[in-house]
Write a structure and sequence with these properties.
Number of strands: 23
Largest sheet: 9 strands, mixed
Strand content: 25-35%
Order of helices and strands: HHHEEHEEEEEEEEEEEEEEEEEEEEHE
Number of helices: 5
Shape: globular
Helix content: 10-25%
């Protein structure tokens, strides 16, 4: 009698064990082949997706057109592994004045500038900006005078400007997928590549950060999937595709990568992407030269000037300068806010906050890798001058 009870109990335990084992096998199999499950079922639990995002990659949107009604939406909720932004990076002890194309008088004293009249000297015509330190603005009886590095100027001959507040992102670890920024304000996603506008989907503003989940080529246009049934064309975005492998010619585990096609800059250290941001490199004819370079001068600020006649420029106290290829440098830029598009005479323009981050990241001898995935930037060194701002 006791033997039969023992056999029955043993059989029950074995049956339960086999049932649990089968459930575990089925559960693990679901992870290994998540896209084979029905769309209404759980494809990837949130914790699993965060730890192993590659195992939760989606099939094409043609195969699963209704993702927003599925638990697969968890993929789109996966945040970038960002470090908190450091607001102190934006500070620089100078303010800036736009002179414009006409000459502006420079006076030897504050009183002489208040009186006006004949000035001791003047700025040359061209693309000219002056700097003045905090507290060097004086106002008396509706007359404003600025004490610049060159002398005193009247406020009615110049205009104040505010540098761009844009700031890139620092990472705790390398992101699992490509990401980037919107560079065209008012970019409105469509439901399918080259499809019609979805009026229910909000348009994106310039400098919004996005992640990329898929891409398609339709009629020579590259489209990126940035959310459930939300596609934007390549021209609206600047994309960073993290690649911690050391580029050819770079001889260190720490380097700065300048992507000329995408107009962005990334910092890599010991096999990890640690920072990324938008930039503005050289326009056609004054390209930023591709190649592997080393920082040869590191300056907290520097005056930059060049060109002749209508092409003359003079920029006082350019902040956080890393010269790497003759006169070409990564540096802070206060005179425009069009990051993500070519704007310079060969330098790599960054916001003041981003320039300071890379200034802290680099030393003399640090590597700068400049490349163009499209292959459109000339590589013939005879086409390049010393470069400029």
């Amino acid at each position: 009698m006791e033997s039969k009870r023992l056999q029955s109990l043993t059989g029950l335990v074995v049956s339960l064990g086999l049932g649990i084992a089968a459930a575990i096998v089925s559960w693990v199999s679901g992870y290994a082949n998540p896209i084979k499950q029905p769309i209404g079922e759980l494809l990837c639990p949130r914790d699993f997706m965060f730890r192993f995002p590659a195992k939760c990659a989606y099939p094409s949107s043609d195969e699963y057109p209704s993702r927003q009604n599925s638990s697969s939406l968890y993929l789109y909720e996966s945040p970038l592994p960002l470090e908190p932004k450091d607001p102190t990076l934006r500070y620089f002890p100078f303010n800036y004045l736009r002179v414009g194309s006409k000459r502006v008088g420079i006076y030897e004293s504050q009183e002489a500038a208040k009186r006006g009249g004949g000035a001791g000297s003047s700025t040359p015509p061209g693309f000219v900006y002056l700097s003045y330190r905090d507290g060097a603005r004086y106002e008396d009886q509706n007359t404003v005078v600025y004490a610049t590095e060159r002398g005193y100027v009247r406020g009615d001959n110049v205009s104040r400007l505010s540098p761009s507040p844009f700031q890139g992102v620092a990472f705790k670890q390398t992101p699992a997928r490509p990401f980037g920024w919107v560079i065209s304000g008012g970019s409105c996603p469509v439901r399918t590549p080259d499809g019609e506008r979805d009026e229910s989907a909000p348009c994106l503003t310039r400098y919004e950060i996005i992640q990329v989940y898929d891409q398609r080529h339709v009629d020579d246009i590259t489209w990126y999937l940035i959310g459930p049934n939300r596609w934007l064309p390549k021209e609206s975005l600047s994309i960073v595709d993290p690649d911690p492998s050391r580029p050819e010619g770079v001889e260190s585990d720490r380097w700065i990568s300048v992507n000329l096609e995408q107009q962005n800059v990334a910092g890599y250290d010991s096999g990890e992407l640690v920072y990324a941001t938008l930039s503005s490199t050289g326009r056609d004819g004054t390209w930023t030269q591709p190649g592997a370079f080393q920082v040869w001068a590191r300056l907290e600020r520097d005056d930059m000037s060049g060109g002749v006649d209508e092409g003359y420029y003079a920029l006082d106290d350019v902040p956080w300068v890393l010269y790497f290829d003759q006169a070409r440098a990564l540096h802070g830029t206060y005179w425009h806010d069009r990051f993500g598009t070519p704007q310079s005479r060969g330098c790599v323009n960054l916001s003041i906050a981003d320039a300071r981050w890379f200034f802290n990241f680099a030393q003399e001898g640090s590597w700068v890798y400049v490349w163009d995935p499209s292959g459109e930037t000339p590589t013939d060194p005879t086409l390049y001058t010393a470069g400029g701002a």
